[in-house]
């Protein structure tokens, strides 16, 4: 049993963080949590398997993870897996193709932020300067 209390936030951090990024003490505490609370280990393994599939861009491993989550509605990530399944073609392309619209999405987000900040202030000339400033 653990000699000190672990918050849910701390445990969630350990579960979602790759093991090699945790300190020795954090790894020991995580292992104690996994031993003490049997319902945490399956979640930990599911998250790590998901992270590895994403990190390695292994579509087949991801599909195995997805099928496992969809096999039972009591699985912890069942609702998330259903949403992924509904757009599986886009997910497949994200795994298999080298293209990304991340840069475009970042620019759109930046423009929307500027527009929100500028609402009701100054004029079109200042808005234009702010938009073009970082290009």
From TrEMBL:
<dbReference type="InterPro" id="IPR002560">
    <property type="entry name" value="Transposase_DDE"/>
</dbReference>
<feature type="domain" description="Transposase IS204/IS1001/IS1096/IS1165 DDE">
    <location>
        <begin position="9"/>
        <end position="121"/>
    </location>
</feature>
<dbReference type="InterPro" id="IPR047951">
    <property type="entry name" value="Transpos_ISL3"/>
</dbReference>
<protein>
    <submittedName>
        <fullName>Transposase</fullName>
    </submittedName>
</protein>
<dbReference type="Pfam" id="PF01610">
    <property type="entry name" value="DDE_Tnp_ISL3"/>
</dbReference>
């Amino acid at each position: 049993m653990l000699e000190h209390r672990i918050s849910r936030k701390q445990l969630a951090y350990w579960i979602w963080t790759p093991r090699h990024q945790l300190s020795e003490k954090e790894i020991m505490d995580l292992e104690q949590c996994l031993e003490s609370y049997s319902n945490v280990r399956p979640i930990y393994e599911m998250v790590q398997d998901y992270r590895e599939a994403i990190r390695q861009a292994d579509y087949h491993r991801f599909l195995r993870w997805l099928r496992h989550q969809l096999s039972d509605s009591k699985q912890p990530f069942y609702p998330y897996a259903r949403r992924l399944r509904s757009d599986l073609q886009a997910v497949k392309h994200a795994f298999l193709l080298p293209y990304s619209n991340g840069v475009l999405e970042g620019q759109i987000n930046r423009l929307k932020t500027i527009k929100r900040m500028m609402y009701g202030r100054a004029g079109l000339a200042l808005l234009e300067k702010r938009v073009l400033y970082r290009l």
